[in-house]
Amino acid sequence: MENLDRYYLILELRYGASLEEIEGKYQDLLERYRRDLQGNNPRLQRRAEERLKEVTEAYEGLKLYHASRAAQASRAPQVAPSRAEPAPMSPPPPPVPAPVSRPVPPRPEVPASADQSSRQLADEEEARPFLQEAEQHLQREEWVQAISVLRRAVEVAPESAVVRSKLGVALAHSGKHAEALEEFSRAVALNRRYAAAYSNMGNVYLEQGKLDQAVEAYQKAIDLDPDYWIAHQNLGVVYKRMGRLDLAVGQFKKATRLSLKRATTPEEGAPRRRLGCLPGAAASMLVLIAAAYLLR
Length: 296
Hints:
This protein has 13 helices and no strands. It is mostly helical.
């Protein structure tokens, strides 16, 4: 379970915002950083890519949190009303012969994932001050300070996939690729469905020029979350470097289509309205930018 306070902070929302507010703010931030991606400033483009990853991770984490709360509410046991007076005592029944013993079917084992998630959430709550401080250092690109703070967060929450992955991000930014990969590997070992951690692994492999491993990592993220458009976009970059332009174009198109799908498809149960939708001209511009990138 992701650190809620950090996610609300990334999305610039008050703690406890509704799912509709989360969806609306997410679409607003997507449109904001898309404008930087379309610009000609390489520094702003790199920063926008990082922010889009963080914003998407926060959005997915808060969606998972709201879904888990709804599931817990639906499974809440019904408590029988207490009786005002105890029932009168009845005489003991006559002895009956012992029933024939029958084999009792084995009781199904309860998976430990729920207990593990609860423990991780509790650890992340305790590590929240460190995560908040580290987030500020990451925003200012102060990698050394962020690493120092996140190592303390790991001491508090060693079984938190979020803390491990965030430490990996800081290590990767500082050029410590081997250590970053170790932290991403620990993150996915703690949460096998952590698509963002696999995507981060792909980013490191891409920096190292290990293109086959990068493809494998990005594909794993996509297998876990087929709508993870950032992973599709990153996979397209790898295919472009490999000279597989047809596959690169396909991934860029998927990334554009999925990002627009998020902008036009409301959450189940939310009002049917278009939140932060990109105009058609802007969508066409994203495809043209991807095509121009391939021609470099």
